[in-house]
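I have been asked to look over a protein record a colleague put together. Alongside the sequence sits a line of tokens, each denoting a local backbone shape. Please read both lines and tell me whether the tokens look consistent with the sequence. I do not need a full report, just your reasoning and any doubts. I have pasted the whole thing underneath without changing anything.
>
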Amino acid sequence: MNIAQAAPALLDPSVLLAMIVGTAVGIAVGALPGLSATMGIAVLIPLTFTMEPLVALGMIAGIYNGSMYGGSIPAILLRIPGTPAGIATVFDGHEMAKQGKARLALNISLVSSSIGSAVSAVALLLLAPPLAMIALRFGPADYFWLAVFGMTTIAIMLSGNPAKGILSACFGLCLGVVGIDTITGNERFTFGSVEFLSGIHIIVLLTGLYAIPPAIDLMMGRNTIDAGNVDLGEKTANFSWSSLIPTWLRSSAIGLIVGLIPALGGNIAALLAWQEERRYSKNKDNWGKGEPAGLAAPECANNADTAATLIPALTLGIPGNAVAAVILGALLVHGLRPGPDLFRADAEVTYGFMLTMLVTSGMMFVIGKLGARAYVNVLRVPRQILGPIILVLTTVGVYAIHNSIFEVILMLVFGLIGFAMERLSIPTAPAVLAVILGPIAEENLRRALLISGDNITYLVRSPISIILAFLVVIALVSPAWTTWRKNKVNAKA
């Protein structure tokens, strides 16, 4: 009933224009390395003070959805994730571009993103209250094991050498402890520097590890993509889209579940979806070498996370990630107070906002489809020019976070570290994930021990904790088990 009453408001020309502009701007924001949906929405909020609430929220919905897809554009074409959620897109998307399938890769990303966003928006509309209750079942111990499980699986599974994956994760864990201790308020590893008090910003690390090394490769002439190899659509007609349906279904489910759990996000959903699809695949050796399902899974999952993240935010006032927190700020600016009463006192605007999440997922497909050929043309820019352009854009993007030259220098340092890690075949994704999950694991471990009076058995009391702990053990033991089986088979041969 509320949905039917809110739907006509979306036909207002100002609301439609706001959604179109927001979606286009969101794609552009996501496509620029160093920028993010959080930054785009944060910049937009002051400009929406004089707008009607639904107009402002429609534009915010467009930026949110558009930026999640936009991050895949540089990830596919240049091996630079435009947003943190684009890390897993690089694995197979960029390899497809190197094989002359950039247009197909962009189409797969666009379709997968649109499906994920639409599924997420429908879940937000229909399942917000009951699904929000799932997140309430997670206690501190459960969050600890979930974070450990995420770091363990990514560190081991994303590397041909588990030792190198764990080394990368340990590097990220070390970076994650820099700053203010959230439990005691003490400074840790700041070395007397004021700039380190707020910790290592994820965008600074992400841009350094993922944008600087490809830029160096471009300037050194090592990048193998050439405009002449780009598939502009002649071969994509033969692609079997139906083969991706199971991937979309599973990845959408993963994105929804991750979105419901506060403090996780699209980057974790994307990496988990990529790993799960690889586990289901019969051609595991093709993953990381241009597997279409390896591109569809993370793009569908990170977009399925968008509206799902807003479920606990709107119903309980608990933001699932930084973007949701900024959106809650936008709601408060326009006189809307998140919580159960939001669906009763401001039902028309609330359901209208949720409908804009669905409509902008369709607009994202149309705008993305029209611009796909233009995106591919970025490869026609000479590599000696493209490299410096990337450096300039990333520098501007990082500087814009806090207007800090220190963070620009830090980004360049991480860039050199990332360049060295690539040469040593050490994966960078576990480091980025550890910076995100490390503080979550530490904070919830200490909170669980405080609650239990330092009783270590408290960590494995709930069924959720026991299941997650068991999965961690399996993830740690599986490489050794696989190696033992191979050696046994070779010995018999």
User: Anything to note?
Assistant: The radius of gyration is 22 Å. The chain has a mean pLDDT of 78.
